[in-house]
Amino acid sequence: MKYALAALAATATLARPADASIAETIDSVFASSTGWFVNLIFANLPGTGIPWIVGWLVIGAFVFTLYFGFIQVRAFGHALQIVRGKYSDPKDAGEVSPFQALTAALSGTVGLGNIAGVAVAVSIGGAGATFWMILAGLLGMASKFTECTLGVKYRNEYPDGSVSGGPMYYIKKGFAERGLPLGGFMAIMFSIFCVLGALGGGNMFQANQAASQVQSVLGVPTWITGLVLSGIVFLVIVGGIKSIARVTEKVVPFMGGGYFIVGMAILILNWDMIGWAFSEIIRGAFTDTGIIGGMVGAIIQGFRRAAFSNEAGIGSAAIAHSAVRTKEPISEGFVSLLEPFIDTVIICTMTALVIIITQQLLIDANTGMYLLDANGRIQNVEGVGAGVPLTSAAFGSAFGWAPYALSVAVFLFAFSTMITWSYYGVKAWTYMFGEGETKELVFKLAFCFFIFVGAVTSLDAVIDFSDAALFSMAIFNIIALYFLMPIVKRELNSYLLRLKSGQIKAYK
Amino acid sequence: MAEIYLIAYDGSDTAERALNYAAARAKASGAALILAHVLEWSPYSFLSAEEVAERHKRRKEEVGRAETVILDPIRKKLSAQGLSVSTEVRYGHIAEVICELATEYKATQIIVGRTGEKGLQARLFGSVPATLAQVAPVPCTIIP
Hints:
The complex is a heterodimer of chains A (508) and B (144). Chain A has helices at residues 2-15, 19-41, 52-67, 71-74, 76-84, 98-109, 112-125, 128-153, 167-177, 183-218, 222-238, 242-269, 274-286, 294-310, 316-321, 329-336, 338-357, 388-398, 402-433, 437-456, 459-501; strands spanning 156-157, 163-164. Chain A is mainly alpha-helical and 508 residues long. Chain A has one domain: Amino acid/polyamine transporter I (Up-down Bundle). In chain A, strands 1-2 form a two-stranded antiparallel ribbon. Chain B has one domain (4-119): Rossmann fold, CATH 3.40.50. In chain B, strand 2 (32-40), helix 2 and strand 3 form a beta-alpha-beta unit. Chain B is globular, with a radius of gyration of 16 Å. Chain B starts with a strand and ends with a strand. Chain B is of the alpha/beta class and 144 residues long. Chain B has a five-stranded parallel β-sheet, with helices on both faces. Classes of the chains: A mainly alpha (508), B alpha/beta (144). Chains A and B meet through helix 6, strand 2, helix 12 and helix 19 of A and helix 2 and strand 3 of B.
């Protein structure tokens, strides 16, 4: 631990004199070393402008929605009752409640995707991207239900009471149970990409956005924020100082609530514009508003952001939910299907509406077409970069203090997402290399190092890599979900029958 | 009907006084004693992913500690004096759980020590004895 601290300090002294050039070097090395991987994952379907991976996720979500008969609609009310504790046995008090399982998994997904990712989506895809984002969010609820049910069903329980679960476990055990080949191989592939996803979307993207927001509002160089973040995360995950994480876990849900309330306030202040905003969203969703790729461009951006933000089909939430002690895998699946709803349909949509309603995106008054800059992005009023700065400008146009509050929120969201993803990463890592403190330490040190790398590299290189790594998890996860969904259906039918007969009883 | 005293016991000095009071009364009346240790717990607090994973293990440890360190020595001591003693470890809002236990075990009296919260904290959240005084389903004795 001492050596690691010394190494961090050494990085600090090295970075100081030639700050800019080192950042540039890391950036170019990063972009050139990950470019091929990004290109492979985001390759278009032959003859179309649609990346195959986006279609993969949405088709998956659509198939699960149909296969389970619109479970997200049918079980929505029941899911709320479970979270309220209606079906919790009072004898289980002291175990993780459904509410705690939901908020713990949400803290990994509600984060910068909701603030920065959405801003990127609307500044490339226009207002119409919002419509497709909501649709993908609603469909994603079925994917989340499927994967979290399986996560609980096939987790490993150890004699000391701890549990390990997630796609790598259900792929291996579920495939073995059904007599299918390649389960072990796919589980390992998933784990590899889960580790990369933890370092990318769960880490570098977060660090990058936090650093750029702190730089643009408070003028602190990115490498300082990078070092601070990596230092704090180091203290928590390696140093075992849980109190920091505990404080954050308590503050972050309130920040999420506060973000929603401030967003609502801006919408109410502009209530006369709400109808216009929705008509812009519909117009952008179904017609060409001058963005790159036209209507298809809006679909791609919307789908992409929804998937990246709520992580449905990616398999990450299954890792968090499988740790919950419950007798019914299905009830955990029901709880989890609320996540894409809260994350995408409520919070992401709030960000998009605020950006649209405060009219940050420039529209040609004569043609109704968006004005694009040299990079094919829609120009905005303040001329700021896509990502957090755009959201910040939108909130700032209504409340002068909002950008400062947003900086704090971004920093905390980034931090809590990193802590959650470090847990996902460790689980995938130990699945591959076996449980053990030294093995965990290796991953955790790498995790802290990549925070710094993420903070100083450019937005595009990081965002592309983190999306690519996350989506790669979905390749193996969704294949497995297709093969294992009959098992979920059997569980679901049995659960619904027992619920109807009163065998699963309400306590309140 | 035999008397049953439910005592909220957390090992503190005031809980000790409540216990002594109850034990003395029980010797006279032949009442059975139930020692309840309640661990404060809300299903609506926030946990991190790692805490979620460790929760079941922690719960087992917490219950084990409450039984072996806090309740067992007392039970042995009182049993040796010829009293009928049983123990219970529960999670939840302390006053609420005490009331539930009182109903569940058909206790005839609840005996608690005065915790003595003062100032803002007591004003905002109330104290366990004060809450019990207001909502207890059976007579409640508060020991200073």
